[in-house]
Each structure stands twice: as structure tokens, then as C-alpha cells.
Amino acid sequence: MLTIFLPNAGCKYRCKFCNQYSMTGEKMPSLNYLKDYFNRFNNQSPKEIAFYGGTFTGLKLETQLTYLKLVQSFFPNTPIRISTRPDEINDENLKILKQYNVKIVELGIQSMYNDVLKASGRGHSVEDNVNAIKKLLENNFIVSAHLMVGLPKDSFSKDLNSFKELIELNVKLFRIHPTIVFKNTLLENEYYSGTYVPLDINEALDICSEQILISFAYNVKIIRLGYFVPEEQKKQIIAGPYHPSFGDIAKAKAIKKIIQRLKIKNVYFPKKYESWFYAYGNKNLDIKRNIWDGNLKFEEFSLQEASKLALKERKKKCGTIKNNQ
Ligand code: SF4
């Protein structure tokens, strides 16, 4: 995939946690830079082109068209993906996106709770989220929903419920980011004044491993879990549950939850899953590991069945969790 970063471009609000310049180190590319960049492909089309880092459909219409036409002039058949926010989805935008071969829309939902959205300075509502998803799906776009965990006014149950509500709306792709406090953001001020307390790494892993179980149970994909922060930008992280292998650790924790909650003694798996049962502390699990060519199984249960049962076990133990827990 060829990725073009347009840091904070088209954003009419600055969300409390966001400063794309700090987070990515990227600068706004000039059109000449993009032309040179595209020329280096010698007419060989990349599989996909993505405009990330801002609110593409929040850009002036003529700017959107300039980018889309530029891509089309170099790579006429290459599918495009853009990132945007729910309150910048409208019929006019969708018509243009369709016309220029945009297939996937990365949609910054972040939460399905209005108090969380408000406290995070998002500037849009849950109603905007629902309307945008419905409109995009009706128009045959693939929606990749972005969620954050550990935002101001967030909780364990709100994070899980937000995820489930989006699945019910028929979203199949997700990116989930634990909230990190970056330099030069409003959240940095709140962190220093003590009004925002970030999750610690264990709390974030607990929530996200539960979301992984939900994704297995409902057959949806989390295509990214945890921030990718380039090495040179790591000094911009002030606080929060950052780990370069956050997604892998959360997955290992989800597997551990299945094994412990269902008291599994035998696992059967193709070799490609081996790391799930050894990495990040899972080496010490008291299980018999059987490598085979069949599907991944926990005793007689498939991954999906085992995940559903593991979620049920948690519910049994915790009862109904209120939204502020
Ligand atoms: S989170 Fe998204 S919408 Fe908010 S300021 Fe950052 S890029 Fe813009």
C-alpha cells in the first residue's frame, strides 16, 4: 500500500488526544513532492493508495479533487482509501469518493458514548457515528472503524459496548488504539493538571484482550491494535499504555483468558499459531500443545466457540457491569 499522510488536514476540531505532527513526525506533502513520489513507481500501480492522518472529506472540495485527480492520472485503476470523521460524511462527498475509486473509508468513531466524545473534544455525536456508518454501508463502501480505549470519561464496559454496538451496525473491520498522551496535545495539559489519568498497560491490555475475544466470537477483524509510533517520535510520548508489541501481547492475553476461563488442557493448532501459545508468558500455561494441520481448537471448541464461552464465563463472574466501571 502507498500511504500519503496529510497531518490534521481538513480537521475543523483538534481532538484532545491528537497532534498528528507529534504522533507521526510527518509534514504536509506538496503536490510536487507527490508527483515525484508517484513518478518513482514507473507506471507500476501500487495495490492501494491511502490518504491518512487527517479528515479527507473535511478538506475543501477542490483540494479533495486535486488529490484524487492526481492519483487517478498516475494510477487510474488503483483503489483508494481515505480517513475521515463521521460528521464529514455527506451525499456530495460520497458521490465524489465513488467517482474516484475510493473503496475503504477509515472512520474515526472512537466511542459510542456522547460523554466520552464530548470529554475528548471530538465535536461529533453518537448519532453522527451511526448515520455515517449507515450511509457508507448503504453506498457499498467498506468501513474500517477506529475506536479508542481509555479516553476521558471512558470505562471498561463503555469500551466493550462501543465495540459491540459497531458490530451490530455491521462493521467488520476495526482499528483500536489505547489512548496515549502525546506532547503538544490538550490531553497533555489535562494529564499534568491531574484531570486525566491514562490507563496503565495492564488495564489497557485487559480491555483490548476482551475486545479480541469479541472479534473472534463475532468474526470481525481488528486490523490494527495499538499505535505505531516511529522510533524518532517516541520521545513525544508523555504517558499512557504504549508498547511497540501491544497488539501481540493483547492477543496472547486473549488466548490465556480462553485457556484459564474454560480450564483447557489440550490445544490443537497449525504451526503458524505456535507463538500464540508460547509468547508473552503463555509458555508457562499448563496445557498440552498439539501441532496439527487441522483448524485451531481448544479441546473440542473452535476459536469462535471458545471465545464465546470465555466471554460468557466473564459475564457470569462479573455480572452486569455498569458503564462507569
Ligand atoms: S483525531 Fe482525527 S479528527 Fe481529530 S484532530 Fe486528529 S486527525 Fe483530526
TrEMBL record:
CDD domains: Radical_SAM. Residues 1-219 form the Radical SAM core domain. The keyword Translocase does not apply. One of its GO terms (molecular function) is catalytic activity. InterPro entries: ELP3, Elp3/MiaA/NifB-like_rSAM, Radical_SAM_C, rSAM, rSAM_horseshoe, rSAM_sf. GO terms for biological process: tRNA wobble base 5-methoxycarbonylmethyl-2-thiouridinylation. GO terms for cellular component: cytoplasm. Its cofactor is [4Fe-4S] cluster. Keywords: 4Fe-4S, Iron, Iron-sulfur, Metal-binding, S-adenosyl-L-methionine. SMART domains: Elp3. This is Radical_SAM C-terminal domain-containing protein.
